[in-house]
Amino acid sequence: MKALGIAATGMLAQQTNVDVISNNIANANTTGFKSSRAAFQDLIYETVRREGALTSEAGTARPTGVDIGFGVETAGTVRLNTQGGLLATENQLDLAIDGRGFFAVNLPDGGQAFTRDGAFQLSAEGQLVTLQGYELDPGIVVPDNTTQIEVSEQGVVMAYVGGDPAPVELGRITMSTFTNAAGMRQLGGNLLEATTASGDAVPANPGDEGIGILRQGYLENSNVNIIQQITDLISAQRAYEMNSKSLETADQMMTAANQIK
C-alpha cells in the first residue's frame, strides 16, 4: 500500500510549510524583512493503465488512464519582494528605500552583500556602517564636527560642519537592482548575496526611472501580513492532521488485511 509513503511526504511538506510561516511571523518586526512562502510540486506517478490505449479491435481508446502519484515535495521557498510600510524614526541616519533596490555593503572577507535595512550608524572613523559594522558601498565618511546630515531622495548626502551655514557634499548613496531579486541567497543578519539565479547587481541611482527614492528619517518595516500568516498556519496544521489521518487509515487497512484468515 502506497498510502503510507504518500501521507509521509505530505506531513514532511506541511512541516516545511510551518517552518517557513514560523520564520515569517518571527520576523514580523525585522527591518526590511521580506516574507517567503513554500512552493510544492507533486512527485512522479506510476501508470497502471495508460490513457489513449486501445480497448478493442475496433479502435476504441481509453479516454482516461490510471495514474497513482507518490506524494509531494518542496519545490522551493519563494521570497516576496513587495514594499514594506515606512516607519518614521526622526533619526537622520535612518534611510528607507521606497521602491526597488538594495543598499550594497562590504563584508570583512572582501565580498559584497545587499540589504534593505537602512538603520545606519557611524563607525569610530565616521564611516556610515550597518548595525553589524559593515561599511556602506560607496563609502560615506562624516566629519567629526558635523552638526546635521541631510540625505536627498536622490541619495545625495550633505553635512553641516561646525558653524558653517553652507553644507558640504559628502557623496552619493547608490542602490543595486537585480533582474531576479527573488533568486538572491539569504545570509542572515538582514543580508543577501547575488547568485547566478538573481543575476549580477546593476548599479542605479535613487530617483532613476523605475528604481525608487530614499526616505531619510524612515525605516522600512517587514512586509509580513500577520493575519495572512496565521490563516496559512491554520491551513498547514489542518493539512498535516489530514495527512496523519491518511497514514493512520492506511495502517488500519493493512492491519485488517493481515488479520484475514
Automatic annotation (TrEMBL):
Q: Which UniProt keywords apply?
A: Bacterial flagellum, Cell projection, Cilium, Flagellum
**According to its record, what are the GO cellular component terms?**
bacterial-type flagellum basal body, distal rod
Give the matching PROSITE patterns. FLAGELLA_BB_ROD
List, for all copies, the residue spans of the domain called Flagellar basal body rod protein N-terminal: 6-34
Q: Which GO terms describe its biological process?
A: bacterial-type flagellum-dependent swarming motility
Ranges of residues in domain Flagellar basal-body/hook protein C-terminal: 215-260
Q: What is its main location?
A: other
Entries under SUPFAM superfamilies matching the protein:
Flagellar hook protein flgE
Flagellar hook protein FlgE/F/G-like D1 domain location: 96-159
Keyword Chloroplast attached: no
Tell me the subunit arrangement. Answer: The basal body constitutes a major portion of the flagellar organelle and consists of four rings (L,P,S, and M) mounted on a central rod. The rod consists of about 26 subunits of FlgG in the distal portion, and FlgB, FlgC and FlgF are thought to build up the proximal portion of the rod with about 6 subunits each.
Please give the name of this protein.
Flagellar basal-body rod protein FlgG
Q: Which organism is it from?
A: Limimaricola cinnabarinus
